[in-house]
Amino acid sequence: MRVLLLVALLAAYSVAAFSQHPLRGTVTDAPGAAIPSALVLIHWDSVHADTGLSSNVGIKTDLALHTDEHGRFEAALPPGFYDVFVSAKAFTPFCRKIRIVTTPPKEMKIRMEVDALVIKEIADYFESPPPRK
Questions:
Q1: pLDDT given for residue 11 in this prediction
Q2: Alpha-helical regions (H) of the chain
Q3: Which residues are CB-neighbours of 66 under 8 A, at least 6 positions away?
Q4: Has residue 132 been placed in a domain?
Q5: Is residue 47 part of a domain?
Q6: pLDDT single digits (tens) 36-60
Q7: N or C: where does the chain have the smaller number of CB atoms within 10 Å of the terminal CB?
Q8: How high is the pLDDT of residue 19?
Q9: Would you say residue 22 has pLDDT above 80?
């Protein structure tokens, strides 16, 4: 009887540990407009996974996604700690550490700022445009 109970508990644990949980997000600029085609890179942080932290199952390879025309992205991930990197042309890159545990789904609202270097380059260009050939 105890053996059956132990097997049932191990089976329930393995299903819970390896189940997928949704990570959803929206990427916008500072005023709130969607940023389509932004690159979203999800990297599993395996710290302590090998020392028995059973809630840090993670993924073995990085996951690269692009936002849709509404700036949305979605991924199904096993429990664990992740680094989420987001980049888009002309914007300062974004990075945040998150933890996926259970439902309800993790919903990220990422607001990106226009990169100051890009603004300076554009301003410099319009102040003294290169000569035309």
A1: 41
A2: 2-17, 116-127
A3: 37, 38, 39, 40, 73
A4: no
A5: yes
A6: 999 999 999 887 666 656 777 889 8
A7: C
A8: 79
A9: yes
